[in-house]
Structures are given as C-alpha cells and as structure tokens.
Amino acid sequence: MIITSTNPAHLDQVVGEVELGDADTFVAAAQSAHDAQPGWARIPAPVRGRAIAQIGRVVEANAEALARLVTAEIGKPYAEALGEVREIVDTCDFFLGEGRRLYGQTVPSEMPDKQLFTFRKPVGTVAVITAGNFPVAVPSWYIVPALLAGNTIVWKPADYSPVVSEAFRDLFVRGGGLPDGVFTLVQADGAATFEGLSRSLDQGLVDKVGFTGSSAVGAEIGALAGRHLQTACLELGGKNPLVVTPSADLDLAVEGALFSGFGTAGQRCTSLGTVIVHESVHDDFLARFTAAVAAARVGDPTEDVLMGPMLDAKFAERYEEYLGWVAPHHKVHGATGRIGADNPRDGFVGDPGAGLYYHPVVVDGTRPGDRLFDEETFGPIVGVATYRDLDEAIAMANHPGYGLSSAIYTSDALEAFRFRDGISAGMVSVNNSTSGAEAHLPFGGNGKSGNGSRQSGIWVLDQFTRWQSVNWDYSGRLQKAQMDVGELTGDAGFRLGS
C-alpha cells in the first residue's frame, strides 16, 4: 500500500509517497535487528559514542533542510522545527560523553579476598514507536541512547510524517556509518505494527518497547509488553496545568500560557490544558490573555507565526469534537472552528483556505468534572479555571490524573516549593512554560502520562540497559554470603565465621 503525504498548510502540495509494510515487514526488521545486536554490542562503547557524535555533526550540517521538511510535512512553524532539529544535535552531543562513562560501581564485600562489581548491559533489540508531532526530536530521545548502550533499533514512526522519517533514518544510518540491521525503519499503519510487534515479542526478537503517543494506545502497548515480562518505556498524553498566583508577573504568565497553549497549535503532549488562576487576578489575567490570543499571528508556518495548521486531517476532526465539549456554564472567547472566508481571523498570514487552520480558543469557567477540564484536548484550546487558595489549586492541577508537565507563575518562593511538593507531574516549571525540554534533564510523566519511565539525560540509560552484578572471590575457598559472617576480634582484628 502506497500513501501520499501532503502539506497540512497547503493541502494540494504533495510532500512525498511512501510504501507501507505489513506485520511481516515488522517481524523481518526485528529479526534483522536481533541478528545484528551481538555484533553492535561488541563494538566498544566509546566507539559507538563517536558514531553518535558523527550523527550529530551530520544532522547539524543539514539542520535547515531537515527543519524545512518538518515544516512542510506536519505544518510546524519553521522556528519550532529548527529548534526540534537542534534537540537531536544536543542529544548526540550529550551521549558522546556517555560512551566513555556508562558507569558501573565497585562495591565492598562482607567477605575478605572478594570484590563486587556492577556493569550496564544492553537490553538487546528495541522497538520504538513514535508520534509525528515531534517527528525527529522524540525519536532521537529513544534511538540515540539505545544505540549508544549497544542495542539495535526497529523504529515505526507516525504514518502522517513518513517523508521526514525517511530523511531522519538516512541521516542516522549514513551519517553514523551504522552496520546493516542496527537501525531499521518500518513504515506501517497501527494495526500492522501491533500485530508485528506482538509476533516479534512472541518469537523473542524484541527485548524492549518504547512508545510515545496517546494514553489509550500506551495502555495497550504496556499490556502487550507486560505479557512478555517486559516494562515498556511509555511517554503518553497530558492535561498540563499552569497556576497563576496573586504574586505572579501577569504579562510573563500570559506569554508563557500563550506559547504553552498554542505552540504547535496545541498539539504537544506538554501543551497547556488549563490555566488555574487565583480569583483576585482572574479577570485581569483573562483580559490580557484573550487579548494576546486575539493578536497572535496564525497562518503559514514558513512565516513568523505562533501557530500553523493542524498536523493532519484526523487531528482536525478530533479537535472539532473537543469544541463540542463546551458546556452552558463556560464562556468562549474568540471565534471557533476552521478558519476560512466564512469564518475569518483578523491578521491571518497566508491563505486560510489552503490548509487545516483553526481558531485558537480560550474557554473560561472550566472546572473539575468538565470534559474540557478532565481530558486531554490535542489542539489549540485552553481552559481557564479559578481557585481560592494554593491547596485548592494543587488539587485542581492533579485532578485529571495525567501528571506529565506543570507550571506555576509566582514571586513567592514558598508557593513554588509547596507547588513542587504537591504536584503529581514528572516535570515542574517555575515562571516558565509547560512545554520545553533539555537534553540532559529527565523527561516523562506519571499516572495517565506514563509509567514512570524517563527519557533524556543519564536517567534514560536505565531504560536501555540492565544491571549485571559480578562477585569475584580470590580467597581459594568457598565463602558463603550471609552464612560465613565475619566479626571483629580484640586480638586478631577479624575472624571469618562459619
């Protein structure tokens, strides 16, 4: 089956055509990766690190071209797309150094003439399945550390970003000089992927699964891996809160909420879901926020805009469903729906009829129990709620049960620390947006947002390595731990028990 990828900002523009594989394609790729893994693991880690460094340099040299392709295929504004490509470079730069670390430990033994050690071992073959809203940055968070640690990869990207995925694969394989089977791309739809993954797990060809996508699909992936006594690395959705306190710099909070809520047209797992504003500053904040949204530049992603189109028609259709969740007690600010000649937006950049463009929406009066408050809304819609004290704000922030990203705007250090202590999210920002990550800080969530696994930094290595312990006894006799217990003596100093 051949699919055609079109530009969501200009639907009549074809980005490319890609042939989709089936479940057999996935299994064959897993077999190839499984066969190649022992050889790749035998290559010294510092040498693998140099391959990662070379990939980083090749991506850096092609950054603008790759960013333009990201913009063309998913409609992400170019500045954001270029920042995403730079995340690959940052990740490669960080993991070059880990090739000379991958530290274990030397541990003291309770026995004489005995040494204890720990080592990191690669898990084996890793199946990586990613979404297309970050079609190159997020895959690199899995693939770079997994390769560095000595694993081989089967990568299945989103079916709405296939051309970018091909370019990403070519930069990695050719740029890093990777041997055959070490990194294989499989283009397939969801059903074929799930069947192929299941069969590969049954045959012992896949040792770890990494998945970025919706909470619903993540639960299925996690259950499938669990049946094979594996723990998947899951990075899922979010309903990310941003709390505005009475001491907040309101203009800064508005700027943070604008980028958090409407960057990438609200199609990030870390996008802002609900602004939770103290009652004393609610009206002032809301007036400033809605004015900023009304003035924001929306349109052609090759221009200087806050947000471009929806990623794909399926996300546009789903977003229209979210607009149906508006309840009678809500107040909608601004126009809603698809932007066009009959539903215009002032200052639109470009031709709204050419692509999948939608109005950014602010909905005031949301509260726990509302679908708009409780459930992830993947698109340019932000709820606003009101709170009376910080304990209530924290309870509201935790209510949806996701736990990915969060933010608080405050000038009070005590409020910041109380929020950090009480929030369930895996990531907390103080006076910054809910979006954004750095390559050396752990990324991931809890609850509906994931199973506690983390990407980025040294922490992701726990996903792609297993600890091996070694005890080396050179006493010349059998020493039995916990049975032959040594003790101090007054004369000899130490005596081994029996």
Report what the structure shows.
With 498 residues, the protein is of the alpha/beta class. It folds into two domains: 2-236 and 450-468, Aldehyde Dehydrogenase, Chain A, domain 1 (3-Layer(aba) Sandwich), CATH 3.40.605; 240-438, Aldehyde Dehydrogenase, Chain A, domain 2 (3-Layer(aba) Sandwich). 38% of the residues lie in helices and 20% in strands. A seven-stranded mixed β-sheet has the order 12-13-14-11-10-15-16, with helices on both faces. Helix 5 (137-148) links the parallel strand 5 and strand 6 (152-156). Helix 3 packs across helix 4, helix 9 (250-262) packs across helix 10 (282-295) and helix 13 (390-398) runs parallel beside helix 14. The protein is globular, with a radius of gyration of 25 Å. It holds the Pfam family Aldedh. InterPro entries: Ald_DH/histidinol_DH (IPR016161), Ald_DH_C (IPR016163), Ald_DH_CS_GLU (IPR029510), Ald_DH_N (IPR016162), Aldehyde_DH_dom (IPR015590), ALDH7A1-like (IPR044638). The active site is at residue 235. Keywords: NAD, Oxidoreductase.
Q: Main sheet? A: 7 strands, mixed
Strand order of the largest sheet: 12-13-14-11-10-15-16
By secondary-structure content and strand pairing, the structural class works out as: alpha/beta
Rg calculated over all Cα atoms: 25 Å
Distance between the termini: 71 Å
Structural domains: how many: 2
Which regions are unreliable across 5 or more consecutive residues at pLDDT < 50?
A: none
* CATH topology descriptor of the largest domain: Aldehyde Dehydrogenase, Chain A, domain 1
CATH class of the largest domain: Alpha Beta
Number of strands: 19
The portion of residues assigned to helices is: 25-40%
Q: Would you identify the CATH architecture of the largest domain?
A: 3-Layer(aba) Sandwich
> What assembly state would you assign to the polypeptide chains in this entry?
single chain
Q: What overall geometry do the principal axes of the alpha carbons give?
A: globular
Mean of residue pLDDT? 95
Count of runs of 4 or more consecutive helical residues:
15
Strand content: 15-25%
